[in-house]
Design brief:
heterodimer; A: mainly alpha; B: globular
Chain lengths: 55, 174
């Protein structure tokens, strides 16, 4: 039995961990990005827009 | 695009991404939103200095990052887990017996140094290229790559992430 048959997952372990990290990283990022804006921030944007329209 | 209204609307459209990037830097939702507010105010009042046809998201990320680090230098705000409060919550590797829990991931991610968190977020989550990330961070492309690699290695070390066994179709030729 070769060494690689003794440890069938070892060769791909690092890749799977990296894939898991990428997925979680993206999920955390996307979760925050998809949250509704907090009221304070939305109010600020509304005010800036209004001020901009007034010129 | 010379219409200031269009630039303003483009800026507003990037606010969700700004919040996500800020959260990765600040490790605290309230502080992150303060950073975003400050960034929006600075950017809004300096829209004239934004070069049309360039990457507005990268421009905004740069402003946010500069704001974060200048604040950090000024107040010496603690941004890393020096008191170990996150480390204490990290599950034992032995207990990590399945798909990585997202909250565990966030806790461990928070332990990384800020420069590694930002590099990983910019490249791995926000979809920017290494070149764009290097411009935002004001460093060489190789430095960004190194930070990303170190961040990944550290996360793997801390989490010891284990996924379900590979499906047969994905199994390597052994």
């Amino acid at each position: 039995m070769s060494d690689k048959h003794d440890r069938p997952y070892r060769a791909t372990e690092g890749r799977r961990e990296e894939d898991s990290i990428s997925r979680n990283l993206k999920r955390v990022y996307d979760n925050v990005a998809s949250e509704p804006l907090p009221d304070t921030l939305q109010s600020l944007l509304d005010k800036l827009r209004q001020d901009g329209q007034r010129g | 695009m010379s219409n200031p209204d269009l630039r303003q609307e483009e800026l507003v459209g990037h606010v969700p991404a700004l919040r996500a990037f800020a959260r990765s830097l600040a490790n605290d939702a309230s502080h992150a939103d303060d950073l975003v507010q400050e960034t929006v105010l600075k950017a809004w009042s300096n829209l004239d200095s934004y070069s049309e046809g360039t990457n507005m998201r990268a421009w905004l990320f740069t402003i946010l990052r500069n704001t974060f680090y200048s604040e950090f230098r000024k107040f010496r705000r603690e941004v890393e887990d020096v008191d170990g409060k996150f480390a204490a919550q990290v599950p034992d590797r032995a207990a990590q017996d399945g798909v990585m829990d997202m909250r565990d991931f966030e806790r461990v991610f928070a332990q990384l140094p800020a420069d590694q968190r930002e590099a990983l977020t910019l490249v791995g989550a926000s979809g920017l290229t290494y070149e764009e990330a290097s411009e935002i961070c004001g460093c060489a492309v190789g430095t960004v790559k190194s930070r990303v690699n170190r961040a990944r290695a550290r996360l793997i070390e801390l989490l010891g992430a284990r996924e379900a066994p590979l499906e047969a179709s994905a199994a390597p030729d052994l």
